[in-house]
Design brief:
The chain is of the alpha/beta class. The chain folds into two domains: 196 residues, 3-Layer(aba) Sandwich (Rossmann fold); 97 residues, UDP-galactose 4-epimerase, domain 1. It is built from twelve helices and 14 strands. The strands form four sheets. A six-stranded parallel beta sheet has the order 3-2-1-4-5-7, with helices on both faces. Strands 6-8-12 form a three-stranded parallel beta sheet. Strands 9-11-13 form a three-stranded mixed beta sheet. The mean pLDDT is 94.
């Protein structure tokens, strides 16, 4: 990767991926794009930034040509819970952006990274140690768009040679940027509330296990996949990746090691609970481990220690 365009640089992953990429590839070689949500000031000041609507193919193509882009990180998406509130908008944004990226990279012979999600699975998928290759019948518009995006990536690789790659991300936990409408948001919110109020009311029930990953691992996994030797990749769109699987009670127990008085209550959101129940309890990421050497660095305990330290410092400012 030489010149990288990051779509959705103001989002949860994008706001941390841009600085991460700039440290590796150079500030002027990573172009951050945004639309309605403003960029973090440090991103605007540390390198090129472009305001664009990602469903506008012409404006995207103009940026690709201007900055001689060879790789696009396509992070634009309407997430699971918000997608159910407006399925038409979710489909349009998720699919038109992906299609534009693939079409443009077809012309310039470049690469595209498009994250998929555990949301691509559904209630008929095996829930424990979900295989890399398995039945995928999601019941949300977000999940349907992710499956379609995976298939499009494979199609453009096989038919046009586009170097399309992706990861099926689990829930992503960050100490920098708050999430924006996903089913796994509770796993970020719980740390903030534990520090601020010593209590949290979960919208998912006890016993709801979901795969999760700390943001440093999420960023590293994306770069490692895009730098992997293509000759070793059997799968491209997309690899299961995970670092841990837990339910609300387990994360609460991890927090109590640092905040003993922390109290966890429940007020289940039926929409989010139904979505979570349709997703895997845990994924098998052995394909990622064998094909490009994936290995997470954070588990629940080490992530909790780091989250409490970083979020506590953040909230004191």
């Amino acid at each position: 990767m030489k010149n990288i365009l990051v779509l959705g640089a103001a989002g949860q992953i994008g706001s941390e991926l841009v600085p991460y990429l700039r440290k590796i590839y150079g500030e002027n070689h990573v172009i951050a794009t945004f639309n309605r949500t403003p960029l973090l000031q440090e991103i605007k000041e540390s390198g090129p930034a472009v305001q664009m609507d990602a469903i506008n193919k012409d404006s995207m193509y103009e940026a690709v040509k201007k900055y001689d882009i060879d790789t696009i990180f396509n992070l634009v998406a309407v997430l699971s819970a918000k997608g159910e509130a407006n399925p038409t908008l979710s489909w349009r944004i998720n699919m038109e952006t992906t299609f534009n990226c693939l079409e443009i990279m077809k012309d310039v012979r470049g690469a595209v990274f498009t994250p998929s999600s555990i949301g691509a699975f559904g209630p008929s998928t095996p829930q424990d140690q979900t295989p890399q290759d398995t039945i995928m019948r999601p019941t949300t518009i977000y999940g349907i768009s992710k499956v379609a995006g995976e298939l499009l990536g494979d199609y453009y690789y096989l038919k046009y040679g586009v170097d399309a790659r992706g990861l099926r991300y689990p829930g992503i936990i960050s100490n920098v940027t708050l999430p924006g409408g996903g089913t796994t948001d509770y796993a970020v919110e719980i740390y903030y509330e534990a520090i601020k109020t010593k209590s949290y009311t979960s919208n998912l029930s006890a016993g709801t296990f979901l795969d999760m990953m700390y943001m440093p691992d999420a960023l590293r996994s994306a770069v490692e996949l895009m730098e992997a030797d293509p000759a070793k990749l059997v799968h491209r769109n997309c690899f299961n990746v995970t670092a841990m699987s837990f339910d609300p009670e387990m994360i609460a127990a991890a927090i109590r090691k640092y905040i003993p008085e922390f109290r966890l209550d429940y007020k289940v959101d039926p929409v989010k609970q139904a979505i979570a129940d349709s997703w895997p309890n845990s994924m098998d990421d052995s394909a990622a481990r064998s094909e490009w050497g994936w290995k997470p660095e954070f588990d629940l305990d080490s992530m909790t220690k780091d989250m409490i330290e970083k979020v506590s410092a953040k909230l004191k400012k």
